[in-house]
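quick one, 222 residues, struct below
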Amino acid sequence: MKAVVLLSGGLDSYTAGAIASAEGYALSALTIWYGQRHAREVESARAVARALGVERHLELPVDLRPIGGSSLTSAEPVPLDRDLSAEGIPSTYVPARNTIFLALALGWAEVLGAVDLVIGVNALDYSGYPDCRPAFIAAFEALAAAATRAGVEGARFRVHAPLLTMTKAEIIRRGVSLGLDYGLTHSCYAPRPDGRPCGRCDSCVLRARGFADAGLPDPLLA
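---
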């Protein structure tokens, strides 16, 4: 069984890929250079790809900075110390990012003869992004069936989102049970000049909360 996994270098995509690998999928990893200010994560994606033993790792440049609309792809400051219970979608949302990324993964999957896509989205411990919800996953599967030659010829594409209904603590515990080294990962939206996490952005706060709730130390902070 072949699958294309979207690999960002964060702990969620690492865990999703590891779950798919444990289920018997031979993985090809796709990492997107999209103009993100936290490009440090691409280095982690390379380390994670090696750890997962993927068959191939494609790094694809798709610069979203000219489109803008996000503090991750512009000079707009990343919000720090934000109340994660606040309503509304934060400025770190990148317009249509997961739609774009899955579309690219879908195209590569067609070329590879794969019908399984893996993504580490999560609908519980997340920052309010609309493209991390079950409705999005279901809609994209329907799109894949209608918009590809393979789909028209009868192939059934599946988007695997194994973390969708898990808390961050559950994700971390699952990864640890699979022997994952989270010291390889990077989650921060606004890393310090030395590459270490800021500890104050949404992603850092969610990661810290997850490790605390799991009763485990974060190897990045050891």
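Residues 2-221 form a domain with the Rossmann fold fold (CATH 3.40.50.620).
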